[in-house]
Amino acid sequence: MSDTQRFSFYKGSPEDATSVARVLQTGLWIGAILALIAGISVLAWPGASATVVVVIFGLYFLIRGVVRVVVGIFAPGLTGGGRALSVLIGLLLVVVGIFALATPGSVLELIGLLIGVTWIIDGVATLIETGRASSRGITVALGSVSIIAGVVVLFVPAAAIAVLVVLGGILLIVVGVAQITAAVALGRVAKS
């Protein structure tokens, strides 16, 4: 059994498995670039208003959600459960992104909670989707970083929003680097 056939929620031929790996790799690259841009932007302008920071996070979650929905709909060889999970998580990310963009200033604390919960759910989904592929260690690390980031964000007091901003920026960069690492590893699996 090839490494790509060991993905959870996978069914199909080895060619489809390679296609799935490439689609997932593309999604990881997009997520990594978005996370790095958002994280660096937040850290470069720590004095920016909280509203600007919420908009940056909103854009990140909106685009990341759209990528997950597209992967869930169009990735070849995914099972119904895999498609449903990807689309559901993607829709959640899109809703959080739209909510953040629509009301950035009035519900900052709620946005922080939604960001934390979304990171936790995305991390859990990443862990579930990992399967038994040889790149599992990197993907488990990516999911774990996302879960830890979400938990940390949930427990940062609302009064310390400045800490949330800096911590969020740092965590976005960490998530971006983890996604780059996972994308590179997945690229190696797709070539095997």
UniProtKB/TrEMBL annotation:
Q: Please give the Pfam families that the UniProt record associates with this protein.
A: DUF308
Provide a GO CC annotation, any one. plasma membrane
Keywords noted in UniProt: Membrane, Transmembrane, Transmembrane helix
Q: Does the keyword Ribonucleoprotein apply?
A: no
Q: Matching InterPro entries, A to Z?
A: Acid_resist_chaperone_HdeD, DUF308_memb
Q: Where is the signal peptide?
A: none
Keyword Transmembrane assigned to the entry: answer is: yes
Residue ranges of the TM segments: 20-44, 50-71, 83-102, 108-128, 140-164, 170-190
Name recorded for this polypeptide: Unannotated protein
Species name: freshwater metagenome
